[in-house]
Amino acid sequence: MNAVITAYPDITRVVFTAEEIQARVEELAGEIEEFYPADAELLVVGLLKGAFVFTGDLVRALRRPSVRIDFIIAGLYGSGMDNSREVQLVHDTSTPIEGRHVLLVEDIVDSGKTLNRITESLDQRSPASLEICALLHKRIAKELRFEPRFVGFDSPSDWLVGYGLDLGERYRHLPFIAAIEPGEG
Ligand code: IMP
Ligand code: MG
């Protein structure tokens, strides 16, 4: 891991290695397979941009004949680590939600604002079911409308980057998850 720290000077420590993430994603897919009836069609909705890597890995680990995939882009005004901003729906799904088993895939639950905003919008469209799969959960959110049924890891309170997570749009491409110093970003 020292090579990693050298290559990315802002990174203070690796929190989850690529291998740990892959192993957990396989387990999560197993949990999801157990939860839904074998013949149910899933509509997996990835929350962009953060969940783009996770969604790709997760759907490839599912073992069922029928899975649809769509995306929502939720944005916060500004781009940094300030959580006091408003959630904006930038792009909605093109697949109708009504009557479908919707599995919303989120990268990380922090304040829960994003999830609350998006689940409210999806729930209004009468899905057959609505569940959330979050790779990371900081466990600090108060009053979540929907608690994620599937969680990859409880996460430290540090700002994390990699595996889709960014700091000011950087570091999404890292195959591991690391803590970063707030510095310049
Ligand atoms: P929330 O609305 O406060 O729960 O924040 C959710 C969104 O903020 C996530 O989907 C991420 O895009 C972003 N976010 C929250 N915490 C982190 C972090 O530690 N690293 C990178 N992005 C984060
Ligand atoms: Mg983000």
Task: Give the secondary structure arrangement, pairings included.
Blueprint: H1 2-7, E1 11-16, H2 18-35, E2 42-48, H3 52-61, E3 67-76, E4 87-91, E5 101-109, H4 113-123, E6 129-137, E7 150-154, E8 160-161, E9 177-180
Parallel strand pairs: 2-3, 2-5, 5-6, 6-7
Antiparallel strand pairs: 1-9, 3-4, 8-9
Helix pairs in contact: 2-3
Magnesium ion (MG) is lined by residues 50, 166.
For the largest beta-sheet, the strand count, sense and barrel status come to: 6 strands, mixed
Rg for CA atoms: 16 Å
Shape from CA axes? globular
The percentage of residues in β strands lies in 25-35%
Structural class: alpha/beta
Strand order of the largest sheet: 4-3-2-5-6-7
* Terminus-to-terminus distance: 21 Å
| Count of extended strands | 9
The arrangement of helices and strands along the chain is HEHEHEEEHEEEE
Q: Which small compounds were modeled alongside the protein?
A: inosinic acid, magnesium ion
Helix percent reads 10-25%
Mean pLDDT score, rounded?
92
Q: What low-confidence regions span 5 or more consecutive residues with pLDDT below 50?
A: none
Helical run tally: 4
